[in-house]
Design goal:
The chain is 42% helix and 12% strand. The strands form three sheets. It has a four-stranded parallel beta sheet, with helices on both faces. Bound molecules: flavin mononucleotide and iron/sulfur cluster (SF4).
């Protein structure tokens, strides 16, 4: 299988061990895109470059980047740009690599985004555990100030921009855009009800754009190659490249930047080497812990955001592809994921707070041989208090943020693909008394 990566945002860091330094960044064309963007009007950057490129957010929801920027109300200032580097979705490790490996690319991308939306303040919110990443990004910001790429009169253009790096607060919900804004303001990272959306009332109640690290890191390349040229990469409305973090039972786990439209097989077998130790695959999770699972039968499906959502009833989400071999117990995986969601629920909405805890307990007993025959259907029926229509993707929800519906992904996946297996083991063990994990 001869599939190769298409390296755009990962190229510099793959080719140069010192890609995090300003010297290397400048020697490889760094900050040229910012100079060019500053010669355009902000609207031209947004419409003729970013919207034309078809770029969609790489943080999970896949919303059109230029479209999101266009929601900012005209004439309302101040306004802010926030770069989301919280990267809390299990098995997602692409932003970590970009922050550590090529921090100036994020500074430059953030400066382009801030200019395009008319912001004079940008905040980079980085997962607190990324100690080296925070150190390198802070150094990159300081160097950019010294070199005239940040601060007053950026590159002599008359445009002013202040940039701050903020360590994250250590919670999965701090990655949700409104949870992040609460955290940035100094509060607990609790998500807020939308509307109002951040574009209208975000940080300090001012219009705010929140964009993922990879989204922002792509912007200099869009300016350099031109929005139309970028749009020619990829498939359908999934333009360009994306970094997929492949983990689990594969021979070569890691981050792979590929042109959208290649198949899961190209990614998992071609690039990540397939299932290790000569074993067969049992299932894989295509887009982070929040996404419903797929089977080996789906390996020839394309990495196309719309196709995966509409036809496979799951999502490419954060780009974390987790592979499980034939020896894996799907109930144990479902329980482990449920435990993560229950632990990370912020507790603000009743269906998520109570439901995630309860689902974890039921999945625990199924995974540990104490399930009841009715457990799976009970979870599905109960789950409708969180996700009213489990057949619709993306999941609709009764909760404030998308963590609530994510708790149902493992349950829906067990029902879709392993129902007989689960029912059989629940039936066989129904004499046992259910227990609750300590
Ligand atoms: C519970 C939860 C956690 C999230 N974590 C992240 C994260 O770590 N990084 C991220 O970029 N987006 C995360 N998101 C999505 C953000 O809310 C937001 O959609 C994203 O940062 C927007 O950037 P984009 O348009 O560039 O994709 C999370 C969402 C939820 C509901
Ligand atoms: S869905 Fe869960 S994590 Fe999100 S706001 Fe509600 S309780 Fe908090």
């Amino acid at each position: 299988m001869s599939v190769t990566e298409t390296r755009i945002v990962t190229r510099r860091l793959r080719e140069h061990p010192d890609a995090h330094t300003l010297e290397r960044y400048l020697a490889t064309g760094g900050y040229e895109a910012l100079r060019r963007a500053l010669q355009m009007t902000p609207d031209a950057v947004r419409d003729e470059q970013v919207t034309a490129s078809g770029l969609r957010g790489r943080g999970g929801a896949g919303f059109g980047t230029g479209q999101k920027w266009s929601f900012l109300p005209a004439g309302v200032h101040p306004r802010y740009l926030v770069v989301n580097g919280d990267e809390g979705e299990p098995c997602t490790f692409k932003d970590h690599m970009l922050i550590e490996g090529d921090p100036h690319q994020i500074v430059e991308g953030a400066a382009i985004a801030a200019y395009a939306i008319g912001a004079h303040h940008a905040f980079c919110y980085v997962r607190g555990e990324f100690a080296l990443g925070i150190e390198r990004l802070e150094r990159a910001v300081a160097e950019a100030y010294d070199a005239g790429f940040l601060g007053r009169d950026v590159c002599g253009s008359g445009y002013d921009l202040e940039m701050v790096v903020h360590p994250g607060a250590g919670a999965y919900v701090a990655g949700d855009e409104t949870g992040l804004l609460s955290s940035l303001e100094g509060g607990r990272a609790m998500p807020r009800i939308k509307p109002p959306f951040p574009a209208v009332q975000g940080l300090y109640a001012a219009p705010t754009v929140v964009n993922n690290v990879e989204t922002v890191a792509t912007l200099p390349h869009i300016i350099l190659m031109g929005g139309d040229a970028y749009a020619r990469l990829g498939v359908g409305r999934s333009t360009g490249t994306r970094i997929f973090s492949v983990s689990g039972h594969v021979r070569r786990p890691g981050n792979y930047e590929v042109e959208l439209g290649i198949t899961f097989r190209d990614l998992i077998e071609g690039l990540a080497g397939g299932v290790r130790d000569g074993k067969r695959m049992k299932f894989f999770i295509p887009g982070g812990a929040s996404s419903p699972w797929l089977l080996p039968d789906h390996l020839d499906e394309p990495l196309d955001m719309d196709h995966v959502t509409q036809n496979l009833r799951t999502m490419l989400g954060s780009g974390a592809v987790m592979v499980f071999d034939e020896d894996t117990d799907p109930a144990l995986v479902a329980w482990r994921l449920a435990r993560f969601f229950a632990h990370e629920s912020c507790g603000k909405c009743t269906p998520c707070r109570e439901g995630s805890d309860w689902l974890e307990k039921v999945l625990f007993r199924i995974a540990h041989g104490r399930g009841r025959p009715e457990d799976l259907d009970l979870m599905l029926s109960f789950g409708q208090t969180i996700v009213p229509d489990l057949d619709r993707t993306p999941f609709n929800q009764t909760t404030i943020c998308a963590l609530g519906p994510s708790t149902m992904s493992p349950v829906v996946s067990l029902d879709r693909w392993f129902r007989d297996e689960i029912l059989e083991r629940c039936g066989a063990d129904r004499r046992r008394i259910p227990v609750v994990p300590a």
